[in-house]
Amino acid sequence: MRRARLDRGDDLESQLDDNGLGGPEDPAAAAEWNRRAAAAGDPVGLFNRGLDLLRGRGTARDPEAGRQFVDRAAAAGLDEAQRLQRAGYDWREVTPDADEARYMPQG
Fold first, then answer.
1. What separation in angstroms does the CA of 85 have from each of 13, 28, 77, 95?
2. 26-35 per-residue burial string, b: 16 or more CB within 10 A, e: under 16
3. Distance, CA of 3 to chain centre
């Protein structure tokens, strides 16, 4: 079932792993799902991959690459990506206050 979701560009697996739903929280696995969805050209996957790189959550922090993924998602018409661009790529703009501490960049 996981493969079928990836083929659709669905980010559900990433959400499950990132939030520890159905198992322990696994930011690295979530980042891998986002990477795969981005590689498939899914706008949400592109956006989430960009956020992972901006935050350094589950992957090495790389703000330049993160901005490029967000730009691709924005060019595909994803509203949240366009909002993040307008905020100068400050990931806190699209992160609920209650979750901010868990997404603080690690590197």
1. 25, 25, 12, 14
2. bbebbbbbbb
3. 19
What are the distances in angstroms from CA 36 to CA 27, 87, 98? 14, 26, 27
- Distance CA(30)–CA(46), nearest Å, equals 13
What string of DSSP letters covers 23-54? Answer: S---HHHHHHHHHHHHHTT-HHHHHHHHHHHH
Q: How far apart are CA 58 and CA 41, in angstroms?
A: 20
Predicted TM-score of the model (pTM): 0.76
pLDDT 10s digits, 63-103: 999 999 999 999 999 999 999 999 999 988 888 665 666 66
Rounded Cα distance between 21 and 12, Å, is: 10
DSSP 8-class letter at 57:
S
Question: Reduced to 3 states, what is the DSSP secondary structure of residue 92?
Answer: helix
